[in-house]
Write a structure and sequence with these properties.
There is one protein chain. By secondary structure, the chain is an alpha+beta fold. It contains 2 helices and 28 strands. The strands form 6 sheets. The chain has a 6-stranded mixed beta sheet, with no helix packed on it. A 5-stranded antiparallel beta sheet has the order 14-16-12-10-19, with no helix packed on it. Strand 24 and strand 25 form a beta hairpin. The longest helix has 59 residues. It is elongated and about 170 Å long.
Length: 504
């Protein structure tokens, strides 16, 4: 070949916000003067420059250019090894292209910010906040969360408990704050707390080392780093520390819970006013209203009562005279007939009552037997299902012959897999869920789901992405209800005749 080229440094290290350089050497082995164009290829070509971009060399002469990578702080480039190449294109001999290659290691830069909304919440026992975490760095981070208050009077719950945030994205965490003790009465209390985001990865290296801008010669690599200047703190915002050790918070935000009293301050006054009003009404009734009503009623009925008493006395005298004139025989006959009629009526009534009670007991026994047959025995079964990414796997239960399954409870378990979890009756889809949206989910039905004999209860899992740290999707469904015998239709018959008491 008439052209050769090489890099004096093939392994470069670059920190966002900084720059790094190396030398590109080109040799003309031809017999004529050659002109060369130099250009950079690779993912970092946008941030690379060659000075000068062209070289003109005599035969057997060597020239060089400076290759510079200048990476802005907010450049959308992830940390890691990124290959590049310098294409040296001769003008006179286009076929003799030289392409020296190298690698740029982009250093990790962490830039996490957090915002808690609302900053101040109210509640007697519970309050809810939302924590937004924005990853403006160039590497993905996995965070866990913890809460702390100076007086140890609060408890915290985070959903989700662990969160992975890709570079250039933001994620949200629900923060539930619970007061451990109630304030029954008095004044509301202000509870301050701090929410910490913890990086579960290893400790980051300090970002305050600065290497020379350009190494002279030799196979060693050049490193240039620049630490971003910390911005001013804002209310409700957390600022990323410049360096962190394992389990140290990388984001910290402050919040306040205003714990309200359980009993409102006006409750005592309202109770006293109610009692006083009730006492006043009782006193008014007994001291004024009741005596007035009694006096008015007595005056209104006094004269009619006297007249009625006189008429009753006269009627009583006439009845006694008539009774004395009646014969003893007629009195005895009337008494005997009356006694016989009452005895007959009592016997008929007793017979009808006994028969009605017997029929009611029979109906209750039949209804109880039917209910016991329909209720059946308690049924509970756990149907686990494991599927590889891209596969669909079923877990099936078939109702035995002559049985009916009534499902009243479904409990789903998921470690956070992404995919689709379905519950089917044969080929009919009854429920369709996304396992990544829950860890434990229970469903209870007032009207049970019925599976008749030989029908299949199917739990189907379609795996898209397993939970972090697992190679397969693993879900389980708990099924609760009752398994009873299939009800048998009752034959239709003629009604039972009801005997008449004292029949003729």
């Amino acid at each position: 070949m008439a052209t050769s080229a090489y890099l004096d440094l093939t392994a470069l290290q670059l920190t966002p916000g900084g720059s790094v350089q190396c030398r590109v050497a080109v040799t003309n082995h031809g017999s004529v003067v050659e002109s060369y164009n130099l250009r950079v290829t690779g993912d970092l070509a946008t941030f690379a420059s060659v000075e000068p971009p062209t070289l003109s060399l005599y035969p057997d002469a060597e020239g060089s250019a400076i290759l510079t990578f200048d990476l802005p702080v907010d450049a959308p480039v992830e940390a890691g090894d990124i290959p590049f190449a310098v294409v040296v294109e001769p003008h006179e001999h286009p076929g003799d292209v030289a392409v020296p290659e190298g690698t740029v290691t982009v250093q990790a830069r962490d830039a996490l910010t957090g915002e808690l909304t609302p900053r101040t919440s109210h509640g007697r026992r519970w309050a809810r906040h939302s924590l937004a975490v924005d990853n403006r760095g160039n590497r993905a981070v996995t965070l866990e969360f913890a809460g702390k208050d100076p007086d140890a009077l609060l408890g915290f719950r985070f959903r989700p408990e662990r969160l992975r945030i890709a570079p250039g994205t933001a994620a949200f965490v629900t923060v539930d704050v619970r007061a451990l003790d109630r304030i029954w009465r008095g004044t509301p209390a202000t509870r301050t707390f701090t929410v910490h985001a913890l990086d579960v990865a290893a400790a980051r290296e300090p970002a305050d080392r600065v290497a020379p801008a350009l190494a002279a010669t030799g196979p060693a690599s050049a490193t240039v780093t620049a630490a971003p200047a910390p911005g001013p703190a804002q209310p409700g915002l957390g600022r990323t520390p410049r360096r962190a050790t394992p389990r140290e918070p990388v984001v910290s935000v402050d919040g306040t819970m205003l714990q309200d009293v359980t009993l409102p301050p006006w409750l005592g006054r309202a109770v006293l006013a109610t009692v006083a009003g009730a006492v006043a009404l009782v006193a008014l009734w007994f001291l004024a209203i009741r005596p007035a009503i009694q006096s008015t009623a007595q005056d209104a009925v006094a004269d009619p009562l006297n007249q009625i008493r006189q008429e009753v006395g006269q009627a009583r005298t006439a009845a006694e005279e008539a009774n004395r004139q009646a014969g003893a025989a007629q009195q005895q006959a009337g008494s005997a007939n009356s006694a016989a009629g009452e005895a007959k009526d009592s016997a008929g009534t007793a017979a009808e009552t006994l028969q009605s009670q017997q029929q009611e007991r029979e109906r209750e026994q039949v209804a109880q037997a039917q209910q016991e047959a329909l209720a059946g025995a308690p049924f509970n079964r756990r149907l686990p299902v494991v599927a590889d990414p891209g596969d669909t796997v079923n877990a099936t239960y078939t109702v035995p012959r002559g049985q009916v399954l009534r499902v009243t409870d479904l409990v789903f378990e998921s470690p956070g897999d992404a995919g689709v979890l379905q519950v089917l009756r044969n080929d009919q889809v009854l429920l369709s869920l996304q396992p990544e949206n829950f860890r434990d989910l229970d469903q209870h039905f007032v009207s049970p789901i019925i599976f008749t004999e030989r029908q299949r209860l199917i739990v189907r899992l379609t795996c898209t992405t397993p939970a972090p740290g697992d190679s397969a999707c693993r879900n389980a469904t708990y099924v609760g209800g009752s398994l009873a015998a299939k009800p048998t239709p009752r034959p239709t018959g003629s009604p039972t005749p009801t005997p008449r008491p004292g029949g003729r």
